[in-house]
């Protein structure tokens, strides 16, 4: 039975080679990669079965039908509310325009009476709506505080005249707003005739719906691109981490060997350079000697050097023997030191007297 289910699942979404791509396409908002599906085949099969009962947004067929029905009802209620709200705001804008432009002399008395009556009617309607505690809207509903139609509208004749003139005034006002919207949407139509503006105005709603549809399509495309970009970013980060690990392996495994070879090459280079410098110094020394001394003087200097080195060697030997004798004398103690000092003094006097006697003999002769 399980094998039959698996075959049916594969046949529903295509061949096994394209199964992962189709699962990802069926759940675009799910943060799952192709590697996750490959490592978890049972989870992949579960997603395939869920794709038969759910759409791309994660809703079931029954829930989606209820949602569509609710949205249609909501749209109907919204249209009714918008229709009433547009009329109400249109009347308020007419009153605002009247207050803003009431000072010019071109405002006639009937026009002033019309706007004042309309303003009073809106004010009374607003009071009724705010003070009425009930939720009924039929005409049999009792008036606020027991007021009658006559009590509320003592200016009934003005109200009748206002109601007769209101549709045309409201139509003109809405037409002007539509023309302003058309001028904003298509600034090039400012210089066109009224007939052409009317024709374009009749197509304005279709153009706006088209632009709205296009904007929603672009918004959906942006969401899909964002999901795709996030998925690609994750794949890129995974590949980047693999590359970093590979680089670390190369560094740790091969750096010491390469560094040893590099140090050996550098050492050979420095040894060769040092040898070359020594040879150059020797050559410079020989060249300086040849430029400074003749072969005879060099030979004489060598003999003098040999003689001086021999005398230096003899002096060093004599110094060493004297140091040995001095060390043996120091072993005898302080009493022998006094005798040695006295002996040195006597030797010095003897030498001085010999020198004086020799000088005296030399003078007499």
Automatic annotation (TrEMBL):
GO MF annotations in UniProt: microtubule minus-end binding
Coiled coil region boundaries: 298-325
Pfam families (alphabetical): HAUS4 (PF14735)
Keyword match Coiled coil: yes
Domain of life according to the entry: Eukaryota
Keywords recorded for this protein, A-Z: Coiled coil
GO cellular component: HAUS complex
GO biological-process terms attached to the record: centrosome cycle; spindle assembly
Keyword Zinc among record annotations: no
Listed PANTHER family: AUGMIN SUBUNIT 4 FAMILY MEMBER, HAUS AUGMIN-LIKE COMPLEX SUBUNIT 4
Name listed for the protein in its UniProt record: HAUS augmin-like complex, subunit 4
Species of provenance: Oryzias latipes (Japanese rice fish)
């Amino acid at each position: 039975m399980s094998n039959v289910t698996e075959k049916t699942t594969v046949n529903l979404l295509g061949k096994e080679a394209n199964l992962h791509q189709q699962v990802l396409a069926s759940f675009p908002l799910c943060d799952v990669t192709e590697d996750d599906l490959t490592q978890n085949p049972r989870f992949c099969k579960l997603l395939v079965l869920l794709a038969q009962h759910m759409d791309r947004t994660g809703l079931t067929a029954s829930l989606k039908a209820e949602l569509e029905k609710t949205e249609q009802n909501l749209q109907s209620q919204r249209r009714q509310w918008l229709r009433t709200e547009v009329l109400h705001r249109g009347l308020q804008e007419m009153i605002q325009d009247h207050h803003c432009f009431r000072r010019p002399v071109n405002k006639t008395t009937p026009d002033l009476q019309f706007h004042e009556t309309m303003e009073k009617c809106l004010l009374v309607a607003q009071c009724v709506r705010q003070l009425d505690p009930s939720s009924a809207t039929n005409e049999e509903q009792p008036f606020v505080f027991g007021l009658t139609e006559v009590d509320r509208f003592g200016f009934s004749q003005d109200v009748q005249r206002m109601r007769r003139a209101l549709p045309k005034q409201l139509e003109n006002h809405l037409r002007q707003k539509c023309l302003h919207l058309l001028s904003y949407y298509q600034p090039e139509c400012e210089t066109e005739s009224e007939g052409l503006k009317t024709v374009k105005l009749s197509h304005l709603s279709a153009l706006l719906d088209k632009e709205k549809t296009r904007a929603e399509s672009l918004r959906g495309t942006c969401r899909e691109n964002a999901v795709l970009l996030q998925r690609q970013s994750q794949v890129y980060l995974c590949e980047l981490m693999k590359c970093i690990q590979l680089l670390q392996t190369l560094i740790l495994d091969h750096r010491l060997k390469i560094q040893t070879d590099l140090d050996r090459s550098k050492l050979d280079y420095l040894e060769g350079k040092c040898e070359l410098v020594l040879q150059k110094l020797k050559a410079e020394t020989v060249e300086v000697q040849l430029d400074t001394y003749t072969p005879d003087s060099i030979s004489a200097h060598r003999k003098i050097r040999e003689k001086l080195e021999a005398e230096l060697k003899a002096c060093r030997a004599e110094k060493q023997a004297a140091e040995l004798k001095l060390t043996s004398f120091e072993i005898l103690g302080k009493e022998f030191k006094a005798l040695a000092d006295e002996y040195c003094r006597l030797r010095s006097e003897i030498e001085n007297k010999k020198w004086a006697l020799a000088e005296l003999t030399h003078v007499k002769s």
